Recover the amino acids of this structure.
């Protein structure tokens, strides 16, 4: 079973544990158009490894890139996507490859849309007013 944490809990874990890493599995288009978490105040950077392309095709190199980037299997890895679906899949894949401390950020970066179809207002990293950036 993959532990599910909220964005504020993820922020607190990233702040508290110097070994914890945030892995954003959204697409480059999402990073460019919507933004991504800003972790510089914690002395960290977001690791960006897309799980899928914008058409929904699985990135066959996802695990290879993860293994190349994160070589220690016991480091806490916090996976993030739009609302928590792709990040949950990514966390399961990582756990299946031997990573021991994986978490899914269940509300994601933007969370669900409100009644007007706008994301980032109900739940998620943006709704929790956590630091983010839109720079490339």
């Amino acid at each position: 079973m993959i532990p599910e944490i909220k964005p504020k809990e993820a922020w607190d874990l990233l702040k508290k544990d110097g070994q914890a890493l945030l892995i954003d599995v959204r697409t480059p288009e999402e990073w460019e158009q919507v933004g991504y978490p800003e972790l510089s105040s914690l002395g960290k950077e977001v690791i960006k490894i897309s799980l899928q392309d914008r058409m929904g095709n699985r990135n066959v190199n996802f695990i290879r890139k993860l293994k190349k980037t994160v070589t220690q299997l016991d480091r806490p890895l916090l996976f993030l996507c739009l609302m928590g679906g792709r990040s949950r899949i990514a966390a399961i894949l990582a756990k299946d490859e031997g990573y021991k401390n994986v978490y899914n950020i269940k509300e994601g970066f933007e969370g669900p849309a409100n009644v007007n179809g706008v994301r980032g207002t109900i739940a998620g990293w943006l709704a929790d007013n956590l630091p983010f950036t839109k720079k490339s």
